[in-house]
Design a protein that fits this description.
Elements lengths: L4 E4 L6 H4 L3 E2 L2 E2 L1 E5 L14 H9 L2 E4 L7 H6 L3 E4 L4 H11 L1 H10 L4 E4 L1 H4 L32 E3 L11 H11 L5 E3 L4 E6 L2 E6 L5
Parallel strand pairs: 1-7, 4-5, 4-6, 6-7, 8-9
Antiparallel strand pairs: 1-10, 2-3, 10-11
């Protein structure tokens, strides 16, 4: 893995520290993939996550995995961002389009990877531990639950139980049910997991005021 990986639960305060929006004299072109949310709307999601990236100063490029030629769009960006939503819907879209292999290869070649919630989960070796938090039915076309394999750790986002759909009881059930088979990392909403040449570490990711 080269990356780096910037895996977020909710708050994105760590993002600009580990992936500055301007490098040299160029704005970072970040490919925004919303496949985890596409089943919720009839059109591409352009809500708070994307708006936050624009506010932080990135040049945001929408990448639609359902469109022919998305590979060219992906080849033209400096970093990739996988949004939150349903983990199984996201993995299904990545696998169906072949973007899982393309993204994993590019990250191993040094492209930064940013994933929030579902986008953080799919970076790991397996997405099965998300089965109590998301809908496995969204991944019925998956032959297995393999993730991108960019890290050996499966992030469990929203682990502080502050986000209404994911109360502490649900987080505890997830850790108890899957903790004996997977290396799980409960990640609070004001934290991020950074994986780079220096190793893996949890850092503060409090949203800037």
């Amino acid at each position: 893995m080269q990356g780096p990986l910037i895996l977020l639960s909710l708050g994105a305060g760590a993002l600009t520290e580990y992936l500055p929006a301007v490098q040299g004299e160029q704005y970072v072109r970040i490919g925004y993939i919303d496949e985890a949310q596409r089943h919720l709307l009839d059109q591409p999601f352009t809500g708070p996550e994307r708006e936050r990236l624009v506010r932080f100063g990135y040049h945001v490029v929408n990448i639609d995995l359902r469109k022919n030629g998305f590979e060219d769009d992906l080849a033209g960006v400096d970093a990739v961002y996988l949004s939150g939503g349903d983990t199984f819907a996201l993995m299904s879209g990545l696998r169906r389009s072949g973007a899982d292999t393309i993204i994993a290869d590019r990250v191993r070649d040094g492209m930064p990877y940013v994933g929030l919630s579902a986008g953080a989960v799919v970076a790991g070796p397996d997405i099965e531990p998300a089965a109590l938090m998301d809908d496995p039915g969204m991944g019925l076309d998956l032959a297995d639950f393999r993730g991108l394999g960019l890290t050996d750790t499966v992030v469990i986002p929203h682990a502080d139980g502050q986000l209404p759909p994911y109360p502490s009881e649900l987080i505890d059930r997830t850790l108890n049910e899957y903790g004996d088979r997977f290396t799980l990392l409960p990640l609070y909403d004001d934290q991020a997991l950074i994986v780079d040449d220096e190793g893996s570490r949890v850092v503060d990711s409090t949203e800037p005021a």
